[in-house]
């Protein structure tokens, strides 16, 4: 009996980069490894989209469109190139209006892509209808997605095989055009049994020639067993990656998957030696990059607080940038409650960021004392319907703090066209008005404008003597040093990627670490008036006022970025701006002084 050949997509150059390096990789560095992959017989490669689109503008000083063009030139016309889209968010972190959703598909087709995998984190099928139709309209393959995860302990009511089949039936009933169907578990937490039951039920529901795909991450150490469960349930394709990014927060390794299929009825039909050569070429290309230790390890606690591999390292990278990495464990633990009370949206970008940001606020400012605007808008319905209603208490808190009612309509119906707005920004800055620039402004906002104006900076973490990263200013306040060591313990200070850490080593071999105390910056000169402080750690993106200006209550003063989200800090009172204590590019901590209003 002949074996079933399982298709696969090599995710190394998109999800691999996002899951290991926070999506911060320069095109020149990895392109030689792309050619080696094609030479090894790999003919389906993930090439962009998701966080990799914005990251090239945000951190690499490169155009994502140029990268896609180079990708197509390198692989030739016959290799399938796939990207990732987030339903009505496309490759942005907020909802995009219909004209920008259409432009997304048009631009990705123009720049050489073959397929767009399209998901909605809430599994609200309405958010897949228009985006899927435009993907197909522009001649791309549309891989429609049902998003999966395991719920925190004690939760039920969604995210089981029955729930996923209900969503699949809604997709079929909506007549959304699609080329294939993917069941996507970004956190890698679904049990193999559930994966098997889901794929088996899906195979019975669709026609025999419908392509079924499964995607997971190895974050919880379940990746290979999940993949085997998927193919045994009827999946035609899976996602895999190559060393050095495979495993851990990324997808299972190609060679490991080939090994796991020995003696079964399935094969990837690849040449071992050629894959080894391709992996060696990729390892050589990435040898100068800093590998966060958390990216290369199994993180079993994500089974309790589902954190997608693609967001885990992006968040820890940003926490390194702001000197708050020592809070990561607490934030992950807090995520369990945030997910449980937030309506069970799948923990995948952008919802995973909403969860992480809210958990961060709960840790740093007290439980539910401050609602993250994105998390609040989600539980109120402004991103679509959550799989189950959010906790009524959380809905009430969000409505009061955001001063918004519950929303039950289609999110697309309240969004104004994006092309006229982006065109105006380009014209005001004397920049060329073309489709690419319009989409860059619409999807990347201020950072997109900075890129087009030549003001973008790079922040790439390498371990070479001459790092490619442009260091950001130090935090305004010192991070507390580690507590004195107990008897039988010793304290050491080590430096990792230019950041000092206090490490306490016990006689039993246990290790605890916290960032070493940074030298405190001079305190801002005292000015009498109302202080406006940073609500969270983050980076100052843009100052919206100037000293001497008169501001009104709730007038935006500054744009901050924290954990991949931009937000405005507003004036708590009416008055005159007496002092501005920060500038664009600064990194600040919670409660750092930003403005004084008098």
Task: Please characterize this protein's 3D structure.
This protein is α/β, with parallel strands linked by helices. It folds into 4 domains: 4-295, TIM Barrel, CATH 3.20.20.70; 302-414, Cyclin A, domain 1; 480-517, no CATH class; 530-597, Beta Barrel (OB fold (Dihydrolipoamide Acetyltransferase, E2P)), CATH 2.40.50. Helix content is 36%, strand content 18%. It has 18 helices and 21 strands. It has helices at residues 15-21, 27-39, 51-58, 64-75, 98-110, 126-137, 161-173, 192-205, 223-233, 254-260, 272-285, 309-322, 328-341, 351-365, 373-380, 392-402, 419-428, 435-452; strands spanning 4-5, 7-10, 44-49, 80-85, 115-118, 141-147, 180-185, 211-216, 237-240, 266-267, 489-496, 499-506, 511-515, 530-533, 538-543, 550-551, 556-562, 565-570, 575-580, 587-588, 593-597. An 8-stranded parallel sheet has the order 2-9-8-7-6-5-4-3. The chain has a 4-stranded antiparallel sheet with strand order 14-21-19-16, with no helix packed on it. Strands 18-17-15-20 form a 4-stranded antiparallel sheet. A hairpin with a 4-residue loop joins strand 12 (499-506) and strand 13 (511-515). Helix 8 (192-205) packs parallel to helix 9. The protein is globular, with a radius of gyration of 24 Å. The chain starts with a strand and ends with a strand. Residues 465-493, 497-502 and 506-521 have low confidence and may be disordered.
Features:
4 domains, alpha/beta, TIM Barrel, Cyclin A, domain 1, single chain
CATH architecture group name of the largest domain: Alpha-Beta Barrel
How many strand units? 21
Overall geometric form: globular
Low-confidence stretches: 465-493, 497-502, 506-521
The N- to C-terminal Cα distance equals 82 Å
How many structurally independent domains?
Answer: 4
In CATH terms, the superfamily of the largest domain is Aldolase class I
Q: Considering DSSP H and I runs of 4 or more, what fraction of the residues is helical? A: 25-40%
Q: Whole-number average pLDDT?
A: 89
User: Count of helices?
Assistant: 18
Strand content: 15-25%
CATH topology of the largest domain: TIM Barrel
The computed structural class is: alpha/beta
Radius of gyration, taken over Cα atoms and rounded to an integer in Å = 24 Å
The CATH class of the largest domain: Alpha Beta
The largest beta-sheet arranges its strands as 2-9-8-7-6-5-4-3
Biggest sheet features = 8 strands, parallel
